[in-house]
Amino acid sequence: MSEKHDFTFEYVEPPDGAFGAFVNGSWNGLVRQVIYGEIDIVATAFSVTYPRSKLIDYSFPFSAEPMSILIPYPRLDSTISGIVRPFQYEVWIGIILSILILALILWLISRFESRREAFRGKIGLFDYFWFLFRVLANSNEVIAFTLATRLIVTAWCLTAVVFVNSYTSSLVSYLMAPKFVPVITTLQSLADSKEISLMVLKHTSVETTLFAATTGALAKIGALLQAHPENQLNSLENIEDQVYYQRKAFPHEETSLIVRIHDDLKATKQCRLAIAKEPLYPDTHAFGLAKHSPLTKTFDRELIWLRQLGLLDHWKTAALPPPNRCSAPISRLRSTPNKKLTLDSLSSAFLLYAVGVIASILVFVVELIFFKCF
Questions:
Q1: How many Å apart are CA 147 and CA 113, to the nearest integer?
Q2: Spatial separation of the C-alpha atoms in residues 276 and 329, rounded to whole Å
Q3: Which of 143, 130, 180, 128 is nearest to 331 (CA)?
Q4: Distance (Å, rounded) from C-alpha 10 to C-alpha 343?
């Protein structure tokens, strides 16, 4: 453009390092410089916002991308509770309740069986409960039934086959495939998180948007940000380490975050950062100019021409790093074909075994004490 329209330019940084926000009754940063004629054009990833548009003009937008959220890379889920993971808690509760109800029904039928007097009182409620439980555990235990209870037991045995096979296949799938726990998935999960807090760069459109929000997740995040001023940053220095070590979330232009993740992987040789699935909000970038600036029409015409030629998208694609293992969606990660179960994979089973051993020892000690004292 400088060659085509025969002008020179000088690129300068704002003295306060701010993009521009209304603070203490006046504007600062780049917006202030445009208003007072200290600069002619804001030539950066300058977000289009309504408050700014009342004081400055915007050129034709040259970029539209989400304001995404940089978060710590999701961690592998622990297998310590793997033994109960194949079923949801509601299913486990349903199985336990069904055993209790069926045991009660079988006991009542056997008690009120009029044709088989010999069975009355011979089999207690606990006996039926224990039998139904052991059917799920693939036991070969045999128990005497009345004729009326056999059909119920047969149906339960068939149901147990379904439960056992579903549980086994789900357990193997859980242990063999990596399960990652995303720390943040939605804006609401960020607002409700007790582990991850949001930090922002001071005097930016992100800070202004969060402080201005009155309802929803953005308002809650903004209130938390105001309650913790230490999360309002003056610069982007060491932002990657703060996100990773301090368990923070940081919103920024998505392309910038992609570059930061790539550079961090190159420097640390590990995936420490990721981008949350849901962005903070959609964002549009344009050049900022003084109100009624004679340069606005020229820049609009040139930016439209560059977009129509596809050069803006071409330059953006060419500048971005190629996809890497850290940028791949977590849902696409799979275990290797040769992966085998390890002791860590069976930790939940060993935990259950340890609980059983401890409980048995305690019962044995209590019995010794009881028989010795009484």
A1: 9
A2: 10
A3: 180
A4: 63
By CB neighbour count within 10 A (0-12 exposed, 13-18 middle, 19+ buried), where does 247 fall? middle
Q: How buried is residue 206: exposed, middle or buried, by Cβ count under 10 Å (0-12/13-18/19+)?
A: buried
- CA dist., res. 269 & res. 217, Å (int): 35
Answer whether residue 144 shows pLDDT above 70: no
Please state whether beta strands 232-233 and 200-201 pair in parallel, antiparallel, or not at all (unpaired). parallel
Cβ pair 282, 67 in contact under 8 A? yes
Judge whether 97 and 296 are in contact, CB under 8 Å: no
Question: How confident is residue 94, by pLDDT bands cut at 50, 70 and 90?
Answer: confident
The overall pTM is greater than 0.70: no
**The pLDDT value given to residue 233:** 92
Can you tell me the distance from the alpha carbon of 99 to that of 314, in angstroms, rounded to the nearest whole number? 64
Average pLDDT, the chain: 83
Question: Which pair of tokens denotes residue 268?
Answer: 């640390």
- Contacts of residue 149, defined as CB under 8 A and 6 or more positions apart, other chains included, come to 106, 109, 110
Q: Where does residue 310 fall: left (phi above 0), alpha (psi -120 to 50 degrees), or beta otherwise?
A: left
Tokens of 45: 């990833």
CA-CA distance, 180 to 163, in Å (whole number)?
A: 26
Alpha-carbon span 351 to 179, nearest angstrom? 20
Q: How far apart are CA 114 and CA 105, in angstroms?
A: 15
Q: What pLDDT, on a 0 to 100 scale, did the predictor assign at position 200? A: 94
The per-residue pLDDT for 354 is: 82
223-246 pLDDT, tens per residue?
999 999 999 998 888 999 999 999
The alpha carbon dihedral of 324, 327, 330, 332 has a sign of negative
pLDDT in tens, 261-300: 999 999 999 989 999 889 999 999 999 999 999 999 999 9
Q: Which residue has the tokens 């409620």?
A: 125
Q: How far apart are alpha carbons 314 and 291 in whole angstroms?
A: 31
Hey, is 85 helix, strand or coil?
coil
Within 10 Å of residue 217's Cβ, how many Cβ atoms? 17
